[in-house]
Structures are given as C-alpha cells and as structure tokens.
C-alpha cells in the first residue's frame, strides 16, 4: 500500500506571500512558480526553518554536507544564495538577506503573519485583504467579519444565527437576518471578480448555515424555461375551476 508523502509548506516574505514546498523543490509567489534544484531547495529550507533569525554559514555547510549536496568548497553557499535569489526574482532581492556571517529570510509584518488559504486565494483577516495571484481587494468591515468567522471554522458550516449575531454586534444588522445573505452575496461577487468561480468556495445549506471550504460548490443553473412564482398556483386554480363547473352541471 502506497503511503502519501507529507508535503511541508513554509511561508515567508514581507506579506507572507511566498510559499515554499521543500519536498517538491518548488517556490510559489503570486502567479509564478519557480523550480529549484535539490541543492537550492535544501539551502533555502535550512534558512526558512530558522525564520526570524540569522542562519550562520557554518550551519548551512553542515546541513549540506550531511545530505551530500555540497562539495568542500566553502564559497559554494554564496553561489547557491546568488542562484536562489536570482530565481526568486524581485521578491528574492528583498526577501533573502545576506549578512556578514550568514543569511536570513525577511519575516512578514505582524499584521500579515496570519493568513488562511482556500483554493487560489490567500486571506489576511487582520488587514481585511484577499489576494489571488497578483490581484487583491480590501474588504468592508462587515464582509471581513463574516469571512473571518468562516475562515476560523474552515471546513465546517457556521449557523446563520451565529453570523447574524456578529453583524448585530457591529451595528450592521438591525433590520433582519437577511443582512447575512446580502453581505455574503457581495463577498461572493468580490471573490468572483478576483478569480472566476472564486465565490463557490463559500458553500450554503439553504436557510440554515454557510461554510468556507477548499473545494468548490457546484453552481445551480437556471432552467431554460423559467416558471413564474405563481405559475403553479394559477394552474391549480384553473383545474379546480374546471372540476367545480363540471360538478355544478351534474
């Protein structure tokens, strides 16, 4: 029986916008994907695991020698740093920092340190920001509050009543609970604008609850010949009138 290989995901950058997958030797930044060699990946992983402090060159050498990914040339780590920074492009110039005795990765600003991923999106609740590739949108307070609640319970449904209480606490839902439906409808439109079908990550249990999920919810398509809201009632009344008339004649 094949075992699944666990994939590690490390984040760094000024806005925590760079994702690094050491096992796959891949770095994702925005809409660009960069493939690294095994040497470059191990070099970057050693520094990324020490995020927030300087990784000394001697420590990098020990790790690379241990995995037999480096010759005994001490300057080799400088070559790896140059190649990795070049592959990361403009982001790499700002993110991978060279010090006198080693290297470090720029840690994100405090408000960007917490983020939630779903589909192609990254959501930063503290700054009310949603990003998809190189596009981003700021959220209004009530939209951010509801999306934050859904993100904290990602993969589960949240009752409409719980969401309504959040809008009430903000002074946004005085009239009726329909406010929740309106806010989430606007939120879906924003996600759709950033990425087609993005709003489908917000699933609905009609009339009861909402949830934020990794997989998309199939959309409901309108019927080719839509029936009016009172069509069935009128048909029923017409049949009932025919029955009454026939009974009267009898």
Q: Architecture of the domain at 10-105, according to CATH?
A: Orthogonal Bundle
User: What is the count of DSSP helices, taking H or I runs of 4+ residues?
Assistant: 7
Global outline: elongated
Integer average pLDDT: 77
**Uncertain spans:** 1-5, 221-232
End-to-end CA span: 77 Å
Organism: Candidatus Adlerbacteria bacterium GW2011_GWB1_54_7
Protein name: OmpR/PhoB-type domain-containing protein
DNA-binding region: 7-107, 113-214
Keywords: DNA-binding
SSE blueprint and pairings:
Elements: E1 10-12, E2 18-21, E3 26-29, E4 32-35, H1 38-48, E5 55-56, H2 57-66, H3 76-95, E6 96-98, E7 102-105, E8 116-118, E9 121-124, E10 129-132, E11 135-138, H4 141-152, E12 157-159, H5 160-169, H6 178-194, E13 202-205, E14 209-212, H7 231-249
DNA-binding region: 7-107, 113-214
GO molecular function: DNA binding
InterPro entries: OmpR/PhoB-type_DNA-bd (IPR001867), Sig_transdc_resp-reg_C-effctor (IPR016032), WH-like_DNA-bd_sf (IPR036388)
């Amino acid at each position: 029986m094949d075992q699944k290989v666990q994939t590690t995901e490390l984040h760094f950058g000024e806005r925590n916008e760079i994702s690094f997958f050491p096992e796959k030797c891949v770095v994702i930044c925005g809409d660009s994907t960069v493939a690294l060699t095994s040497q470059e990946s191990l070099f970057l992983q050693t520094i990324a695991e020490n995020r927030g402090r300087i990784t000394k060159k001697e420590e990098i050498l020990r790790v690379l020698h241990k995995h037999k990914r480096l010759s005994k040339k001490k300057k080799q780590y400088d070559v790896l740093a140059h190649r990795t920074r070049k592959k990361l492009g403009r982001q790499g110039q700002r993110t991978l920092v060279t010090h006198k005795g080693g290297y470090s990765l720029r840690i994100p600003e405090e408000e960007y340190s917490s983020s939630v991923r779903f589909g192609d999106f990254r959501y930063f609740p503290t700054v009310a920001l949603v990003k998809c590739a190189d596009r981003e949108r700021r959220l209004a307070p009530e939209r951010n509050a509801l999306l934050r609640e859904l993100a904290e319970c990602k993969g589960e449904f949240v009752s409409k009543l719980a969401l309504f209480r959040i809008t009430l606490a903000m002074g946004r839902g005085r009239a009726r609970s329909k406010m929740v439906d309106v806010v989430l409808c606007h939120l879906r439109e924003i996600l759709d604008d950033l990425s087609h079908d993005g709003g489908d990550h917000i699933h609905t249990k009609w009339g009861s609850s909402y949830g934020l999920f990794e997989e998309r919810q199939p959309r409901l398509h309108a019927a080719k010949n839509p029936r009016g809201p009172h069509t069935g009632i009128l048909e029923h009344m017409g049949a009932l009138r025919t029955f009454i008339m026939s009974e009267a004649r009898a």
